[in-house]
Amino acid sequence: MHTPAAVPPPSSLVIERGASLRAFNTFGLPASAQTLVRIASEADAKKVVNDPELGRAPKFILGGGSNLVLTQDVDLCVLKIEIKGRRLLETREDAWIVEVGAGESWHDTVQWCLEQGLPGLENMALIPGTVGAAPVQNIGAYGVELKDRFESLDAVDMITGRTVTLDAAQCHFGYRDSVFKQRLGGKSVITKVRLRLPRPWQPVLGYMELERKIAETANIHPDARQIFDWVCDVRRAKLPDPAVIGNAGSFFKNPVVSAEQCRDIIGRDPEIVHYPMDDGTYKLAAGWLIDACGWKGKSIGRAGVYERQALVLVNRGGASGAEVVTLARAIQESVYGRFGIRLEPEPVVV
Ligand code: EPU
Q1: Domain spanning 86-198 has what CATH number?
Q2: pLDDT, tens digit, for every residue of 93-131?
């Protein structure tokens, strides 16, 4: 017998027009979205795909807005990801697997895991943004990157409406990079992330600032909670709290140069901070390069270079995205002029 196809229920998506994005970007830059849709579940993402108007519109996927410079109003369909939920999915012999909704705050998730007795994320405490944004740019700090604690993620393909599960290899993680910044940018909505926290837990303490804390406190066997507190201390001392001073964390990536280029620069500037990489290249500290060009504490208009960390650009109050970009270009020019190195912005500029 032929049964009629079920009539889909009317869309319950709430569509906002001309919505202000100021509160949704940690730089506090003024801009509005022509169309803004809040995505609170995987089903919402699928409804967008099936919606006659929204389905075809080019998308901009917004997490915590902590890696974003808005220079103009956004005429794309902005999807604000608000998918919640955290649970311990599985306890394996060699790892705990924790599943988290993409819209949860990253830092709150680090804290929640510690409270549940699930250590492993403590070096990445206080990184602003959401869990769904963490794999997009493979966030990292103090010797641990997201890819080191990653199991898999679910994403909705915004063309087909299908849910796909990607493992680490399929995400193509690189330094502050992944497939979601490349081929899948704007085409795929991450809904859930599964984190892999290795058992038994082992501290990661190789970073100079953590070694300094060990020396200061004579605590040579810190637990995860202690490392969490140290990382929070270190970050609070040199990075501005976006709730107080608008910023997007590190504004430039640390540039990677060949061994030959590095030798050449050291010949001219013996003090330059550089780290050898596994493949024979060297990563240079962009903050040092900017500082060496005299930018720390300087401003152009209402956009400035943070006094305590030259890699962070800040909104001194009422800055526009254009002012931030003007400052960023001036910094790029002076670093290029002195060192011959092109700095690449870390945040997405819209
Ligand atoms: N430095 C200066 N002057 C400055 C800033 C830095 O001389 O104004 C020197 C420091 O003394 C240090 C070196 O540059 O020797 C590197 O600085 P830091 O250790 O502060 O780290 P970073 O390279 O500036 C990176 C990440 C941060 C992450 C820290 C800790 C990038 C672009 N940034 O910063 O991530 O928290 O390491 O692991 O990779 C972010 O991505 O938003 C972010 C904050």
Answers
A1: 3.30.465.10
A2: 999 999 999 999 999 999 999 999 999 999 999 999 999
State yes or no: is 162 an active-site residue: no
Q: Tell me: the pLDDT tens digits for 22-60?
A: 999 999 999 999 999 999 999 999 999 999 999 999 999
pTM to 2 decimals? Answer: 0.92
Domain spans of the chain, in order of start: 14-81, 86-198, 240-349
**C-beta of 254 in contact with ligand 1 (< 6 A):** yes
* CATH for the 14-81 domain, from 3.60.140.10, 3.40.50.2300, 3.20.20.80, 3.30.43.10: 3.30.43.10
Kindly list the distances between the CA atom of residue 188 and the CA atoms of 63, 134, 243, 262, in Å, as whole numbers in the listed order: 13, 14, 29, 38
Per the annotation, the verdict on 22 as an active-site residue is no
- The reply to whether 176 belongs to the active site is yes
Query: What is the DSSP secondary-structure string of 181-230?
Result: TTTTTTTEEEEEEEEEEESS------SHHHHHHHHHHT-SS--HHHHHHH
CA dihedral 84, 89, 93, 95 (to 10 degrees): -10
Average pLDDT on 14-28 reads 96
Whole-number Å distance between alpha carbons of 297 and 294: 9
In this structure, whether the domain defined by 240-349 belongs to CATH 3.40.50.1820 is answered with: no
Residue of the CA atom closest to atom 32 of ligand 1: 253
Burial tier of 334 (Cβ tally within 10 Å: 0-12, 13-18, 19+): middle
End-to-end CA distance of the chain: 54
Q: What is the pLDDT of residues 162-195, one digit of tens each?
A: 999 999 999 999 999 999 999 998 899 999 999 9
